[in-house]
Design brief:
215 residues, two-stranded antiparallel sheet, 2 domains, disordered C terminus
């Protein structure tokens, strides 16, 4: 005579087995359907590494308050917005490095994003002639840790503008956000509410690199 509790245990185990079997069959069918519909998003090839290209960084120097063009070989993506961010990441990494002539503490993602707006949304006369407006979204941690002072803040802003124009000539204007929001100043001085003309920063760098105006 089988005890009653053993019968109950057997029935419970049988029900659980049936339920589990049904679930497994259903999961298998769903996986098969995804394969047939091409919904498997796992990459089949390794992502391509961007080739190194010659780039120009407009680098600030606190000792004499100048901007100087510096050639760099960098892996740059083809997408213009991603390229702009890669350039600025390199520029700000240089400022955070040892021996920097424009020391600014770095954070893991100093530049959150760079947006390139259609020329019709630009604000200056150049925008109507094919220029672009770049919106640079800086990390709050970067802005909060930036040294305060009109010269050092202005050099950071102008070097960003000049670097964008030197490598992406269509960018004629730059505006800044911090953590996706408008901010009055970078660290108390440099005005982040205005639109900056990149040509002015690039001209300053050219003069600094060639003070006598030689070709």
């Amino acid at each position: 005579m089988i005890p009653r509790y053993q019968k109950i245990v057997f029935v419970v185990l049988l029900v659980v087995s049936i339920v589990m079997g049904t679930i497994l069959v259903r999961l298998r069918e769903q996986a098969h359907d995804r394969l047939l519909k091409g919904e498997d998003v796992a990459p089949t090839v390794a992502p391509a590494v961007a080739p190194a290209e010659q780039a120009t960084l407009v680098v600030a120097n606190d000792s004499d308050g100048t901007l100087v063009e510096e050639a760099q070989s960098l892996p740059l993506p083809k997408d213009a917005e991603a390229r702009a961010r890669a350039l600025l990441d390199k520029l700000l990494d240089m400022y955070a490095g040892p021996g920097s002539l424009h020391p600014v503490p770095g954070v893991p993602k100093s530049v959150l994003q760079v947006f390139l707006l259609p020329e019709a949304q630009g604000t200056g006369a150049k925008a109507a002639n094919g220029g672009q407006l770049a919106v640079v979204d800086l990390a709050g941690a970067f802005a909060d840790g930036h040294p305060s002072g009109i010269l050092t803040e202005s050099l950071t802003v102008e070097s960003i503008c000049g670097t964008l124009r030197a490598n992406l000539p269509r960018i004629t204007e730059v505006r800044f956000l911090v953590d996706g929001q408008p901010r009055a100043t970078l660290a108390g001085h440099a005005d982040l509410t205005r639109t900056y003309l990149t040509g002015d920063s690039l001209a300053s760098a050219a003069v600094a690199g060639n003070p006598e105006g030689r070709p």
